[in-house]
Structure formats: structure tokens, C-alpha cells
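Lab meeting notes turned into a lecture example. A postdoc, R.K., suggested we walk through two folding results consecutively so the class can see how the record format repeats. The first protein's sequence and C-alpha cells come next.
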Amino acid sequence: MPSPSTHTVAGTTLTMPVQVRDARCIVAGFTADADAMARAIESSGASPLRPLRMRPGRGMVMLVFVDYVDGDLGPYNEFGVCLLVENPAQRPSPINALGSVLRGDAHALIHRLPVDGEFTRQAGRGIWGFPKFLADFDVDHDSSRKRGSVSHDGSLIAALETAPGLPVPAGSGDAELTAYSCLDGTLRSIPWRLGSLSGVRARIGGATLTLGGHPIAEELRDLKLARHAAMTMSVAHLAMTFDDATDL
């Protein structure tokens, strides 16, 4: 059996897969203009990918605030702008697209990924090609109405507040998912495995999104996000692992 691969980041050796033992998150999914999503994908250098179309002319963008409580990359906050894209092994259709979203196994291009930790910034960019950069966060995962905001160079990117959802039974997770990144012209696929989940609440709608004056906020406006979220979810505890990226 081959030995696990390792990566050295800022003098620290990481053994793959990277473990996230505990994290919590809030998620909001908004439908978006599929042609605008395709332009964003192309501008990022990930042109082989195509938006996952939920219905004619509309794709899906997931906005995610994650608080990594305990993991190999240390504690940090993260905000993800994730563009759902077609699974090349699946025939494109609105029914298949909806099934992927409901099952939680839709493929996603990690389009923007500000964080508030230097070590995870270096690891994310160097190991997986994630477009991580340093930003400032103000988050509340403890109140019944969860909220998060992220700013960069004193300019607000986005603020998200979610209303309480209905409890969802805890599960073992154990689903293998696929994310994509594109950095410095290299498109990569990253397998990541979702472990145990608990404290999950979900609902239709229930999100208030405020966009600031930062260029990423303008990008989000250009995507023509729906006025109301299609769904929101919060997770109090989740575990994940991330394996080595594959260049495409």
C-alpha cells in the first residue's frame, strides 16, 4: 500500500488527506443567470466547466460561511462563492440537476474563497489551488438567526443572515464530493469527503443577503442572483477530509 502523500506549508508537514474534525457553517443557495455564470467560469480560466442549469436560463450559486473549529489547517473563518457545475458523468437535465442539489452531491467550482488565516491561505493555494486570500470576518453561528459578513481592504463583500430552519436528522455523511479550483491557469478537481453531521437545520428561503462595494460584490450582482434564496441551511457540527487535487 503506497504511503500517504505529504505537503510542507510554512515549515509544517501535512499528511493527506487533510482532516477537519469539527466545523460549523451557514449556507444559502440562490438561482442565478446561467449565461452570467458561464462568463464568470470562463473568466476564471475554468472554461471546460458548464453551469448546472436548474431550469432554462438559471443556474445555482451557493454562498457559504464556514467556521473551522478544529482541523489540520487550524481554526479560521471562510466565505465561499461556489458555482454549481455539471457533473460530466451525468446527463444534463433539470431533473438531474435538482436531484444533485437535494442529495448534496452537486459539483462546484470554488470561485472566490476569502479566509482569515495565513496558514490556510498558503495551504489552500499551494495544495489545492483554491483562490484563498485574507479578509476580515464578523460571524455569529450561535444565535437562532445565523449571520456572517466578510470585508476586504475596508470594503464589504457580502453579509448574510439566515432565519431558523427545521431540524434535519443527524447523519454519518460519508459522501464523496467533487470541487473544482482554477488558479494561475490550472484547473483542478479536489475530492473531499463529508463525515458526520449534527445540528442540521434547513428550510426553503430564509436568507437576507447584503452586497457591498467590493469587486466581488459587483461580480455577485452581475450573476443576477434571485431576490430570494431557494434554500438555506445551518450545520452546528460537521467533519470533512480533503485529498490531493488532480490537474485537469
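The second example is placed directly after the first for contrast:
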Amino acid sequence: MRILITNDDGINAPGLEIMAAIAAELAGAAGEVWTVAPAFEQSGVAHSISYTRPMMIAKMGERRYAAEGSPADCVMAGLHDVMKDARPDVVLSGVNRGNNSAENALYSGTLGAAMEAALQGVPAIALSQYYGPRNFGMDNPFEAAAQHGADVLRRILSADPVLEGAYGLFYNVNFPPVPAAEVKGIRVARQGARRGTHYGVEPHSSPSGRRFLWIKGGNQQQPSAPGSDAAVNLEGYVSVTPMRADLTAHDALDLLKEIE
């Protein structure tokens, strides 16, 4: 198996090392793992691409490249430049530092990379490690992802449904904020929404008097609706959410027929 890995935390992020180990286990001795990751952190850039400027790409080692672009840029660089003569069988994005459940999915560069791969016709899975009181202070807070990641990926790839549609599936996987031994299992879950929490800004002034705004996230320990991604994560389960790039609100189409 040939695997392309990327992330949004950057080429030197510890989660990318975890991802490389998971990918190597999945690929097997005869497989190949290639890395094309952002040269600098790109968290929160979602599915953005560097459409109006070129990006520099540099070889950092054997099958290892850094690109000055977004995670989606890195996927395109991998598919159309680095691995153009033999495309990967699957694209893996992560392991993200922090969860991409619920509304976080909409901002995530980790998911943006998986979405781009799906748009390019390549199976793709995004992996994220939820942080919380049970794992934040551990020597390896990615322990749940590291120990359960390869098994979860094998299950998804073996069960990957072939469905009709212009937009292919990609998968959002979030590992719960607990030590590996406390992971209860896997739940296939819809994307949730954390009620009463959202992103905002926090103003600060520099010593020179200039005003700056920091983007600030909401309470990540707030569960979403029962059975949805953040809820099952906080219950100790790995969530697997199938997704598409289709943003249509299908449930509203018939309700709007009267305006035609």
C-alpha cells in the first residue's frame, strides 16, 4: 500500500510522527509512506488553497517534503508533483493536536486535506486526538491514537462503502481524551454541534498601544447531542464520521419549492 500523509500542525509536529508510525503499520513492509506537510502550522485554515500565489516545496528527507502552503495544497502537491507517477492508495491527515469533532470540523485544516483528496478521487481519512483532563498531562497525549489508529483505519478501509454521487466520501476520526487502555471502542457518529459554545475573539493591546484580536475557541468538554461525535468522544469512544464536500441542505430543498 502507498500512503500519503499530511497534517495542519506542520512538518515538525509530534502528531505527524504518530501518523507516520500508524501509516507504516498500515502500509506493511512492502508498502511506502510519503509525507507532504506544511512547512509551518496551518491550523484553522479549513479547505483553503494558495490560489493566488505559488508555494515553495522542499525535500526534507527520503519520501519527506515540506510545502509552504495549506494542508489542501500539500495534498495537491503530493498527488500532482511528488507522487505524480504513482498515486497513493489513501491519504491520511493528522494526527491533529486537539479534536476536530462538532463545529471544529468546519475550521479544520486536517479535514481540509482529507476533503481535497476526496475531491481528487483518492480515499482519505482525517485523524484527530481529543484533549481533556484524562490525557492532557500524559507523557504522550496521543497514546489513544497511537495504539488504536491502525486498527481503526483497517476497519474503515475494509468497510468503505461504494456509493453513487459526484462527491466522494472522506472520514473524520476523533480519538477520545483518555489513555489508550480506557478507549471503549468505536462509534459511527454524525457530526454534532456543541450548544452554547463557539469561536470568538479576545482583544489585547501591545506595549506600543496597538490593538490585536486573538481567535478564541469554546469549551471543548461540552458534549454535542447524544450519539454525535463529540458526545461519544467524551464517553470514551473513537468516533468515525463519514463526510462529503456537498454543502447542500437537502432537508430544505422541498421546503423552498414555493419560491420557484
